[in-house]
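Our consortium's second objective concerns turning raw sequence data into structural hypotheses that experimental partners can test. To show how far this objective has progressed, the report includes one record in full. It was chosen at random from the queue rather than selected for favorable results. The single chain below, 757 residues long, was entered without modification.
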Amino acid sequence: MGSVRQRGPELKGMRDDRLKRWSGWLKMRANRGEPLDKLLPDAFAGVREAARRALGYNAFSCQIMAGLTMHRGRIAEMATGEGKTLAAVFAAYLNGLTGKGVHILTFNDYLAQRDAAWMGAVFEMLDMSTAAVFEGLEPEQRRQAYQADITYLTAQEAGFDYLRDALVLDPEDRVQQRPFHFAIVDEADSILIDEARVPLVIAGQLDQDIPNPRPMAQFVASLNEGDDYHFDEYRRNVFLSESGFARAEKTLGVPLHEEAHAGTLSVLNLALHAATLLHRDKDYIVRDNRVECIDALTGRLVDKRRWPHGLHAALEAKEGVEIQKEGSVLGSLTIQHLAAMYPKLAGMTATAQPSAKELDECYGLHITAIPPNKPCMRKDQPNLVFSHKEARDAALIEEICNVHKTGRPLLIGTASVEESENLARALKKEGITAQVLNARTHDVEAAIIAGAGALGAVTISTNMAGRGADIKLGGEDEGQREKVVALGGLYVIGTNRHESSRIDDQLRGRSGRQGDPGETRFFTSLQDDLITRFNVMSLLPKRFRHLQQDEPLTHPVVLGEVDRAQRIIEGQFFYIRRTLWSYATILEQQRQQAQVLRDTILNGESPFTADLAGDADEKKIRELALLRLDGQWTAHLAGVDALKDGIHLTRYGGQDPLFVFRKRMDEAFDGFLEQVETLIGQDLKLLAEGQFEEVAQGLKRPSSTWTYLANDNPFGNQMGFSLMGSGGIGYAVGSFFLWPFLLGAALVKRLIGKDGH
């Protein structure tokens, strides 16, 4: 730190043009192979001076320390408001001196564009180019952005471009022309853990017939709970009853138990799940004739996210909106595996510690806690736990009304769109007008957040206000700041505990920025979703399970078990993610092998096309070989999906699903390679016989391609629970993908009943 400051006076006296030449001298030293650690004091001093000139900022010691942490390939844990955006510039500039490119992976497109423009002024002072990649850019614009020294973008955009590049027929069409080098991940725990399990998918329209889900949605809407279907104990899964199954066969006019009608049975099951387990204004909203998914962790709408295997279409049929195309999967990639492609990886976040074990195991990333520039003055009050929701809600509204009378700004974090709007209506009856920030109002997020710290402001938000929100005390009126400070700063209230303590901590972190005062408190009840869905009540002594009182529960057993339940649930979801990672890694290893083969064909180095050198149609022939390979890979992915859907059933036969999955995947991949070699060989033979057009006719590219994120676990990580062999706390639950087995069991029961046994 001292050596960085010592170089300050010398750089301060340089003109802007000389500072750029000085930066060029550092680049020359880096390209000659001089270790970056040796260049670090000069590089960091240069960034500090450039930030002072371009932005008027004097970087704090904590920002320099965080930059050093990230350069060393670690995660810098920095408190809210400590200036992570500038801290990343130190590590990015130093590693950008090599000319190999640095990617700063942001939380969304808005931040990518904002940070590229904002920090771009610092990099420009040091003669480094900066660009942003975001949705809507044309291929040539993307290609140029990736050639910049520093590129800001989301992990999704980087992954989607990688998937698109993996399908090009000419090497020059790639937009990512350089290998990945170094990535800094902003909000690292969210991107590398929460988002990492969501596969990135590229799909193509292959003119296939897809069953119309609307008639089935209409039939399911006529079914009655209790008579025709029922839920498991925690409403994680839904089952047709014996009478419901009989009614379905009669109405649909097909014997559903016969293998020939498995497709109809699948569409029926999807319609039932869409109708009963996915809820409007909680899991999704309907807008502009479309079903749009809500991310459970952030509360935000997620553009281009779809539930897989026909479930999204079933949901669209339920809501009566346009059925969007799904197509065939041409390629997929998880963000975990995308991150693993960077030889050097680092990150920054305010909430890393609860996920330290997972970040280490999955990425080899260790955490360094960065001391704040100013001590945190926020007061985190003990959580209040009530016996039932009505008591919780009454106490919550009373607290909001009492605090609002003082003029102190409040931010209330809720669990869903529905809850946020219900709370706003309840407060309006008390004479309080609240600003509501949720997936339905996300387009005015910046304006709502800008005023959330103003005198007298009441803001109700879903998890959207938990990430990247910088709430200034006094709002836009600097004159109100001291008044709000005198009132104790922003008061944050949570109405639910989340499955992850990190999400709760992010909400708390909206208050107490940069030494500001603040206060937080959570109001929860034993009827909250977290408690009921995971059967936390079973952990409590019987005398506490049926309490009905208006006052908060104070017994340490109750408070302790609610806290312990959250830790248990976090542990379960960690093991679920690790289990899903194990399965995904097997496919990723195969994808990498297939990509190597594809690249050899693309570059004209494959034995399939080596004898074609000099042939006038070499390029066309190479393209046909690539199309043949791509078609077989699409078929392989479809087979993998089918295998995943049923692999957990091997557990009922006493086998380890992962072992069986790996064995069958190895067999399938061997078959894929053999089929590719056979078919390309046949194509080349036909081409040699002058039948070029016949071969080309059978190998068409998809008429269109598109990218989306596949919601892998639509009902609370059901697949992961079943693969683990466990469900809620002390409860084994069936997977969403168990439907053939479950409906089969219902059929057996029905047949036994007919025989009178």
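The partners drew two points from this record. The first strand starts at residue 75 and ends at 77. The mean pLDDT is 86. Both points have been shared with the crystallography group to help prioritize constructs.
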